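During the reporting period the student researcher (J.K.) took over the structure-prediction task from the postdoctoral fellow and processed the backlog of single-chain submissions. One of the processed entries is reproduced below for the supervisory committee.
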Amino acid sequence: MRGRLPRPSGRAALPPSPPETARATELVGEAHEEAKRTLAEIRDLIRGIHPAVLTDRGLDAAISALASRSPVPTSTTNVLRRPPRSPLTS
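J.K. obtained the following structure tokens:
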């Protein structure tokens, strides 16, 4: 999925009154940042369906990668001493 957020044209159309303009500019900036974070989350979700790290480095690495991006402090432990005998399929 490729996508790009349009440039926020609302910034240029704000009224020239200083207090209202400053707050409006701040709100538009926050909305733009939230939209960028949402797009990144959508991309992560798409990759999360089958992350490349799962194929390249295995389940342990894929789970560790997910945990490292968690906003909640998270740790993981691999309890498998060896890989499964046969490949797992979905």
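The committee noted the following: The chain has three helices and no strands.
J.K. will present the remaining backlog at the next meeting.
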